Every structure is written in C-alpha cells, then in structure tokens.
Amino acid sequence: MARSFYDLNHISPSYPLSRFFTSWFLPSHLFVAYRALLALYASLVIIISNALTPSAAGSRFSYFTWLTYWGITCYMLVSLGHTYSYWRTGRAWLESWPRWLQFLHVLFYSTIVVLPWTVTAVYWGVLFDGFETKYDAWSNISVHALNSVIAFLEIIVTRASPMPWIHIPWFIGILGGYLGIAYITHTTQGFYTYSFLDAQTKGTGVTAGYCVGIVAGTVILFCIVKGLVWLRLWVTETKLGLKGKFSPRDISGGEATVGPEGEKINV
C-alpha cells in the first residue's frame, strides 16, 4: 500500500545520500524554496560584484575568499537541482550519479560547511581594517560573514550526516593547493593575495606560522562542525524523533531507514 506524505515523516528513503537533499523539518517544497533563496543571493553577490568592479573580476579567482564563495554558490545551485528533482520525482539526480561523483558531492558539502569559517576567522581576526564605501561593506559582509551564516544553515537545516574523518587530508590538500595559487599569482601578477604570505616583509618564520596555523585551525573547525552535525542529529532524531520530511513521490518509504551516520537499516 502506498504511504502518504505524512506517513513518511518517520521513515527515511532507503538511499543514504537522501540526507543531502532532505530536511528534518522543512517539507520538500519548502526545502527547495530555501535552497533557491540561498542560491539566488549567493549568485547575485558574484554577479553584482563583477558588474560593479569588472576590472577585479579576473583577479578574484586568486583569493581564497572568492574561491570559497564560488564554491558555496556552485554547491547551492547543484544541491538545488538535487532537491528539486527529488521533490518532483521522488528520486534525486544525485542518486543516479557515479559513485565517484557522489563521493565528491559529500566532500563538496564538507568544504562549504567548514571553509567559510576559516575565511571569516582570518578576515575579521587578521585582515579587516575598515570599510571604504557602502558597497565595500556589503560585499565584504556577504563574503566574509554571511558565508558562515550559509554554512551554519546547511549544518542545521539539512539531515546531512557528520563528515567522515577521511576528508581531513583532502582539506589539507586544498589549503596546500591554494598556497600554490597564491605564489603563482605573485610570480605572474606581482602581488600577494594576503599580506601575511609575503615572507620578505613578514619573515619566513611568521609566514610559515600563519600557514601552519590556518591549516591547524581549519582541522579544529572541521572537528567542531562535525560535532555540531552530530549534535543536530542527536537532538532532532534521537531526542525529538524528527526523522525528516520527504517527497510524497518517494516510493522507497517502507524499504529501509537511514541511521545517524547514513547507514542503511532494513525494517
């Protein structure tokens, strides 16, 4: 017998990745609207920034801030597609992707809930020296503060499981790769994207200390975010019994439930 939308309240789709395109309290259509709103705002920040300061559009790709913000924007657009397809058909695009793309999507989620906090901490703690114009204030608040708001919402609103520890080496690789981009930028364009990367001015020890400190801080943030995700699962699912809101077109309802770590549990 087919289950109604409300009967699915406490039964998860059998596919573990369903946690990335469903919410524990927003029905599917509202979850689509939520992700559409975030995707729209993030896209507008990029479009308006490039339109108002076109001369800086190309150089923005040398900054970790903007690379991270582009990552947030692209993740929200891709996730919007997965969430919409799930709402409309009961099956998300993500479910039919190859395993390696599914892994990259999970890693993508990890980056957009962790790296914005690194960007925010470094900017306000090390780089901030005031705003020159109203546009400057809006732009910097959007990419250095609201970025972390989006990250926090993705931690709290979704049903995503805690990120696997194996993602930490990937984060170290991402940060190391960016360091290469920063010094390539200096070699080819003659400027340092961030002043603390200038070893000639700051000193080799200070620059190395900043780099190691940022990597260590990001790993710590990873652990904190992983803990927050676990706490959200414990509160919403274990204590409150809120297993999630699912598409009325999802026909997998009675086949399995998905545990807090994303594992499949037959019922």
From TrEMBL:
Ranges that cross the membrane: 32-52, 64-85, 106-126, 138-156, 168-186, 206-235
Keyword Transmembrane helix: yes
Superkingdom of this protein's organism: Eukaryota
Transmembrane helix found in the keyword field: yes
The name this protein goes by in its record: FAR-17a/AIG1-like protein
A single GO cellular-component term on record: membrane
Keywords: Membrane, Transmembrane, Transmembrane helix
